[in-house]
Write a structure and sequence with these properties.
Oligomer: single chain
Strand order of the largest sheet: 4-3-5-2-1-6
Number of domains: 4
Structural class: alpha+beta
Distance between the termini: 26 Å
Mean pLDDT: 76
Number of strands: 15
Radius of gyration: 33 Å
Shape: elongated
Amino acid sequence: MIGLGLRLTVSGGREAVARLLILTAAVGLGVGLLLTALSAINAVSAQNARHAWLWTGTVAEPAGHAPAGTDPLWWSIGGDEFAGRQILSVNVAATGPTSPVPPGIPRDPAPGQYYASPALAALIRSTPAGELADRYPGRMAGTIGNAALPSPDSLYIIVGHTAAQLAHAPDAIAVTTIAAALPGLPGGLNPKGLNSSPPDGGAGAGGVDLIFSVVALAMLVPVLIFIATATRLSAARREQRFAALRLAGARPRQVSVIAAVESTVAAVIGVVAGFGLFFALRIPLSAVRFTGERFFLSDLSLSVRDCLLVGIGVPVSAAVVASLALRRVRISPLGVARRVTPRPPRARRLLPLLAGLVYIAFFLLHGRPASNSGQVWAFVPGFALIMVGLVVAGPWLTMAGARIMAQRTSGAGALIAARRLADDPRTAFRAVSGLVLALFITTVAVVGITTQDAKEGSPIGWASAKNVLVDDLAVRPLPTFVLPGRGQPPPIHGGVIWPVTTPSRARRIAPLLARLSGIPGVESVIAVRADGRLTVPRALLGGSAAGLPSIFQETGPVPAGVVSCAQLAAVPGLGLGHCPAGAGAVKFPEFLDTTLPAKSLATITWPAAAVPARQLGRLNLDSIDIATNGTQPAVEKARTTLARAGAYPSQGTPLTLSERAAELTAVKSAYQQLASVVILASLLIAGCTLAAAVAAGLAERKRPFSLLRLTGARLTMLRRVIALESAVPLLTVAGVSIGVGFGAAAIFASVQLQHPLVAPGASYYLLTAAGIAASLGIIVAMFPLLRRITGPETARNE
């Protein structure tokens, strides 16, 4: 029977060859998309895992065991910025030959040496030294390897220092191991560790589990549906041929073997073609910024398990599907010829869908699980059950839509379409099942992100966002503790750790301000002087905290410093407010930040400060706000000058207001990018599923349509039948899918995000409408095929 099945597969004339090629192409496309989705998921996980070493020395770092006698490594990590791109800077100082070495470099850099990532090395070589290279004195000892870089575009630098230099740095710690795994749950500050969140620390091992699980579910299920649809191409024609074999005396088992051989041959060839398609897609896929960064090509890889699962699973599934599709032939060889109407689907098909909603709604009463693994089990099985429920309930919903259409229309085309939908709603729904799931995925993703955005808020836009470079000097409030190898922290005053006033410090700050003022493109330098007793009423800033990120939703007054009116008047075009008449100095926000609830500072008259302008130089600095003309050379030269100053303890990287806004939304932007890719991929796959199903349906029904044309039916009426047979299940089940998506998203928002659902904006509705319109366009695009396959010769040749 196997040999006969192979001969029938390839020797059945042009129709058999065409059927084999179409099935092979469809399965190959599905397998290629499946492998691409698996490799993309693997790449996101690998990219995230290469952030692990940056968590060295933190409270969240997994416990490690250093070999006995390991020399400590002084370690300090910080951030920098260039042209809106983050630079991660790691400062190290080896204390002996056995000090641990970060990944990606052969040895710890000596004092005066540094290793840079390839992207940063190229940037240093192509940029004037005063804008970038002068921040890192010394020479480049080499480049950082891929093992330490999440992306080819990563800007990382590892700078060598002496142990004496880092031992007295306020943000350094001695470590004996380099972190090799991402932390589970980030912590806070620890007397035995650094601040627990490095500037570019990835998503964290625990926090990323739920995200990756949902993404995998959203990408893989539509692809699997497409493969299942592809393996059923020409199912009706095969039933007819195999029924003829039964009438000729073939036993049911023999027919099943022949069918399995035919499907398996096409599936095996399709799998090989799919692997070829995957390797062809790897290079363009590596440039897609799933997480806001490009992938290394090596990250887009498949595990042995992935290859075996696809290479064996798809052909086996194709054989099983082919066998199940012939159940009517096995019962009776006349089952196909008589075309007995199958039993209509029952309302109990709605139960899996309802069970999925009840599963995730259970956590509305019992609350969100505390552990990340518990959250994965709380939502991933529930969403999977809902998706399965939509597929199971689809035929019943299609039948209900067909009955409603039959009651409300009297046209011949509509009645034919309604009768066919009512007789075989399973086949009709199968064509649109991929799009139904894509709409559900889109709804949950967009509504979830919209709700998260509303919860976190977004930074206020500033007219001077690109023109003002801000460097905060004072250190935020910290608990009082003694770090290993260091003395007591500086004295605390007014809730903030102030730099100690010394004549030498004042002498160094004055020349710094002069150097900044002399940079071409710098229009003014606003020195915000420290006075822990001053505040600015929040009401003066013209806004409320309602639209701010949750960590900034405060209602009290804003801490203030003192600003010279002469400096403020020098930059009237930047919209930073003005002084009252006769005032020499005013109270000004201590930290000029985009999180201030201000629609515009230009109209604000700042309160006068009871400090003579001539005495401002005696006060310490809170921050330096540098007004520039917005050009990159001016901003970067000012940033380099601040980095080289060393006159005061800078709180962090000097950033422009627009860079601060982007920093606040960086993680959110990465998740939005990932969601956009998932949405577009699911819609694309759904379109392929619909096109394959509609084309297969036309090919299988070309004889009935040809007979209708011979009896006088107009081609326009047949087109209406095809359109209605696809549009009715599409619109009916799509409406239910979108509604279920809103319900599931509302539950997810309440439980996981702990925020009420926020309706998406107009872009969601435009995207949904565009997806449905594109699907209808695919159906219309099949109309020319209808004319070619329903000519009189078709009825004569059958």
